[in-house]
Design goal:
single chain; alpha+beta; five-stranded antiparallel β-sheet; five-stranded mixed β-sheet; rod-shaped
């Protein structure tokens, strides 16, 4: 657009040349009128002197014709010619290039065609169209062989004794216009060079990185390799750098979810195969056993396997929905102290504590507030309490503490059970990991409770981990950290 606007200056220069030419034509008519009036007042000797003087002063050629149209006076015969047409063949190449450029620009701007100047074969008044008028001065413009303007003006003398013709080679118009055109063309070339350099710069700094990101994103979508990485461009601090890092993080999270989904599907298949195999074995045994007692035992096994499969399916369904539901959930302010108090009251009513005592240090109202999904957070602490109660001995104590710590709310759940070995503290949060207390019936738990709890906590931008109990006591010590609600 900038180059096009600059190129539009060529149209202006064409109009500028036309205005200069019009002014020179008007000037020639005025000059010729003055000369004609002066010549009408003198005799023939004075006319020759005046013609020579006016020719030198105006840098023009003056010719007088009698009433019959015959030339009687020519300034070029009275004195040295004031101008001389230049043969283009004798000029250097740069002049040829200038003329070619003139023609090109004039064609581009649809300039009015100007005829070539030609001296008539017989220099008589009838051969000059400018002398056809009997009233006023008439002027015209044409091109010399070197494409410089030739101004021609003619007028009948006021006393009726003849006519006068003026011709001048106005090279200065061509010099002025060519100089201005050269300036505009230099500016256009500079603007084009800057535009090209800017385009290359933009291509290097914007287009190429975006193309790389698009190619990498396409390869990720096609899923050709697990090792495809989106370039992070750490050296860029602009929007493209932010985009590259966001795409890299997004592709990493997507890859992690895909891998987790594949691993989850494999684990689900493995976990369901065990009760299905047991169920099939029990059903096949029923066909071959006639003893009622054995049949009852096989039916009990089949019922246990069906319940185990039901629990697995329910827990697997919950685990598979947690991420998606948290992504869509609308977080609200939650008072952790009040939520835990209600959870413990509900467990008391259901007698879910199995003879285990639970001590809860209730924080002050609105002291331990977080932003979150109340149902999901309640599921976390319900799972932790179920885990603590199941490992606690009869009459054991489970302690719960919720307290603020800077920008976080810390919740501790600790029991007096056997505890968790340091080497197993990361594995217990894996799906289908099950390390149950002695004497508990096999298959009562799916091994997804702590995995679901960890997913929910991390979905709330928190952390969950297992620590050693203070004072070297035995038992498990779970610590949950959640961002504190602001405002």
């Amino acid at each position: 657009m900038a180059i096009a606007l600059l190129a539009g200056g060529l149209f202006y220069l064409n109009n500028y040349r036309d205005r200069l030419t019009e002014e020179r034509l008007a000037q020639a008519r005025m000059q010729l009128t003055i000369v004609a009036d002066a010549l009408s007042t003198g005799d023939s000797e004075q006319r020759n002197t005046l013609v020579r003087q006016f020719s030198e002063h105006l840098s023009a050629r003056l010719r007088l014709y009698d009433p019959d149209g015959t030339k009687i006076v020519d300034s070029f015969t009275l004195a040295e010619p004031t101008y001389q047409f230049i043969d283009p063949e004798t000029e250097p190449l740069r002049k040829d290039a200038a003329r070619i450029l003139d023609r090109t620009i004039e064609s581009f701007v649809f300039s009015k065609k100007i005829p070539d100047f030609r001296e008539p074969s017989r220099d008589v008044a009838d051969q000059w169209p400018e002398l056809a008028s009997t009233q006023t001065a008439v002027s015209s413009v044409s091109f010399a062989p070197d494409r410089t303007p030739v101004i021609t003006a003619g007028k009948v003398l006021p006393d009726g004794t003849g006519s006068i013709l003026l011709t001048a080679n106005a090279r200065d118009i061509t010099r002025i216009v060519r100089a201005e055109r050269s300036s505009v063309l230099i500016v256009i070339l500079c603007a084009a060079a800057v535009s090209i350099l800017l385009s290359l710069f933009l291509a290097r700094t914007i287009v190429r990185p975006i193309r790389k990101l698009a190619t990498a994103a396409l390869r990720v979508r096609m899923g050709r390799s697990d090792e495809i990485a989106i370039p992070r461009m750490p050296g860029r601090r602009d929007e493209i750098g932010q985009l590259s890092r966001a795409l890299s993080d997004m592709s990493g999270a997507l890859r992690h979810r895909i891998n987790a989904t594949e691993a989850f599907a494999a684990d689900v298949s493995h976990e369901i195969k065990n009760p299905l195999a047991s169920l099939r074995s029990a059903l096949e045994g029923l066909e071959r056993v006639d003893d009622p007692g054995l049949q009852k035992q096989l039916l009990d096994v089949a019922n246990d396997d069906v319940r185990r499969i039901d629990r697995l399916i329910n827990d697997i369904s919950d685990a598979s929905r947690v991420d998606a539901e948290l992504a869509r959930a609308q977080f609200d302010p939650i008072d952790i102290g009040k939520m835990l108090e209600q959870l413990l009251a509900a467990r008391e009513q259901r007698t879910s504590n199995q003879g285990v005592n639970i001590a809860f240090a209730r924080p002050g109202k609105d002291v331990a507030r977080v932003m979150g999904d109340g149902d999901r957070l309640e599921r976390v602490f319900s799972n932790l309490l179920d885990n603590a109660v199941s490992f606690s001995p009869d009459g054991g104590l489970v302690e719960i503490l919720a307290t603020p710590d800077g920008d976080e709310i810390i919740i501790h759940v600790e029991d007096e059970g056997p505890g968790i070995h340091p080497d197993q503290r990361e594995q217990v949060f894996q799906r289908f990991h099950s390390d149950r207390p002695d004497g508990e019936a096999f298959g009562r738990h799916s091994g997804l409770g702590l995995a679901i709890a960890k997913t929910i906590v991390e979905g709330h931008q928190g952390t969950i981990r297992i620590l050693d109990r203070p004072g070297g006591k035995s038992g498990a010590f779970f610590e949950v950290r959640l961002p504190k609600a602001t405002g």
